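Suppose a colleague, Dr. K., hands you the sequence of a protein chain of 199 amino acids and asks what its three-dimensional shape might be. Before reaching for any lab equipment, you can write down a predicted structure in token form. Begin with the sequence itself:
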Amino acid sequence: MYLYGASGHAKVVKDALESQGVKVTGVVDDNPQLDSFEGMPVLHSAEGLSPIIVSVGTCAARRNIVGRLRDVFFGTAIHRSAIVSPSATVGDGSVVMAGAILQPCVSIGRHSIVNTGASVDHDCIVGDFVHIAPHCTLCGSVSVGEGTWVGAGTTIIQGVKIGRNCFIGAGSLVLKDIPDGCVAFGSPCRIRKDSSYEE
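The predicted structure, expressed as tokens, is then:
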């Protein structure tokens, strides 16, 4: 497996892969000044490399990198301590970190992150390029749109729909739907900015 992005997030993805006995063969990064990462040489082109996981935490940056890669097979990383229901699905390029829980009929999209200790309950739908940060709780039948960041320690009650390209601040309690492109935070969570959110 190759990682794209020599970042702190890449260290956690590497750990998840190694917990399942999968070796990281190399790391690619766009920064020409980086020459080593975790004892491995850093490559500056992904040409001819597969499978790859884009190991960048920021949703928009991850989407941008994936958009530039051609003829690449994307892998997944699921830490061995994660609990994943047999009826849950995890899309290509996505990662599920240590202690995370995916309950029955959960759908995780492509190139998304379910971070350390997050809990995603039954029938939740998480779109592509989403980041569910550490220790979030998504109650049953929650949906999270493409490109949205859900900050650490956030709780989203059952049935709530969060739109695309939103930013939900850490520690929020989300009781109502959030439309596309919003910055929202607080307990209870309130929309603070409703113009299109760009990371």
